[in-house]
Amino acid sequence: MIKTVLIDDEPLARAIVTEYLASYPEFTVVAECNDGFEGVKAISQHKPDLIFLDIQMPKINGFDRLELLDETPPVIFTTAFDEYAIKAFESHAIDYLLKPFGKDRFDKALQKWLSQRDQGASESHPVVFRDQPRQPEERTRIVVKEAGTIRIIAVGDIHYIEAYDDYVKIFTEKEMFLKKKTMSYYESILDPAEFVRVHRSYILQVSQITKIEPLEKDAHIAILKSGAQIPLSKSGYAKLKVVLGL
Which residues contact 59 (CB under 8 A, 6 or more apart)? Predict the structure, then answer.
């Protein structure tokens, strides 16, 4: 038995995939999920061999859902938006089905996965994304996973971001979250009028600054409302002065 999970907020789209899978008696749909939250739970519970995943969904999108997993089963994307095709394949997708797709195109995608499986090439693997914004909502919120719980952080709640090996630490008023992204990624997607990379290891929200104090030589430090002290590099201090109009 080949276990399959369908993740799509459109019941009709899930019904079409189920209908097409009926031609393959070795496949069993173990879960149908209406959004990304349900999808994460279903994958953890059922450990499917293959997932069919829509990209544009409420709550969290398909890319966010994949990123929340350390490893993911092989995935075939199903979506009405062709602009996500390159990004889908960057995430190691087996194939990308553009809605509305017919049975022939579906069969081609499924046969591609079956062929890879028979060759031992479709085992679970870490999800890899390039550091580029994928959808506009990424500029307004960050999705993280903490102790098995999915959290959505509004960008406005972020006080500062600190580099931490292959991760970043995201600090809000009372909490800290880890996210496997780079500083360059957040520097590229956050509003430069609100967030400034003031140091190789720090990005801060300008509105959180209460004062800037000089240190030895040309060094400075920013004091935030929370009391956090953020070092400013020479170039970071120069960028900050421009944003502050100094």
Answer: 35, 36, 37
> What average pLDDT does the segment 227-243 reach?
93
Gyration radius from the chain CA atoms: 22
Domains identified in the chain, total number: 2
> Are 202 and 196 in contact, with CB atoms under 8 Å apart?
no
Q: Has residue 37 been placed in a domain? A: yes
Give, as one character, the DSSP assignment of residue 125: B
Alpha-carbon separation of residue 56 from 63, 87, 243 (angstroms) = 9, 13, 35
Contact between 29 and 58 (Cβ < 8 Å): no
Q: pTM to 2 decimals?
A: 0.56
Model pLDDT for residues 46-77, shown as the tens digit of each residue: 999 999 988 776 666 656 666 665 567 888 98
Statement to judge: residues 57 and 159 lie in one domain: no
Residue ranges with strand state E in 9-148: 27-33, 50-53, 75-79, 95-98, 141-146
Same domain for 109 and 157: no
**Cβ neighbours of residue 156 under 8 Å, at least 6 residues apart?**
none
Residues with Cβ within 8 Å of residue 235, at least 6 apart in sequence: none
Distance CA 99, CA 42 (A): 23
